[in-house]
Amino acid sequence: MLLNADAEPLRLLVLCTGNSARSILAEELFNRLLGDHIQAFSAGSHPTGRVNPLAMEQLSEWSGNEVPRSKSWDEFLAPGAVPLDIVLTVCGNAGQVCPQFPGTPLRVHWGLADPAAVEGDEALKRRAFAECHDILRERIRNLAEYLGPLRGERADPSALAVHMRSFAE
Q1: Cβ pair 40, 76 in contact under 8 A
Q2: pLDDT of amino acid 94
Q3: Sign of CA pseudo-dihedral 119, 126, 67, 81
Q4: Phi, psi of 97 (to 5 degrees)
Q5: Where do the DSSP E strands lie in the chain?
Q6: Which domains does the chain have, with CATH numbers?
Q7: Rounded to 5 degrees, what are φ and ψ at 40?
Q8: Active-site positions?
């Protein structure tokens, strides 16, 4: 379960299609709740070029150094890109067309409904974003409990991926 690799955090890329909602929410939650163990990034197969304002409302406690931005997964395929340990897809579209990233990171899929696709009044849309945020927060808090005993140690990416997959069942 443990690897002593100078306690470097695992690098995790969260993917969805537009990189405007689910993957942005997950990136922030991973970095906020598991920043000692995981360095998270997000991207999309067909990025919208903007973060959905309702996603930003959910990120009222944004802890990142930079304001989130919608970006292409091409940034993580380019020579010299950050090496990845795990790629987490949060939508079926990205999961089906996900490229092979350098270093052959492990893949995990958490299929979540797209809150940006919800139609209706603002209250209904806000509720969809809050529900997506709550699901992600619960799963990531569970991971925090799992990783908690590893103080000063680096998690084994394979064991973590197995644990993450258990949430999708």
Answers
A1: no
A2: 61
A3: negative
A4: -115, 15
A5: 2-3, 10-16, 38-44, 86-89, 106-109, 154-155
A6: 2-168 (3.40.50.2300)
A7: -105, 150
A8: 16, 91, 98
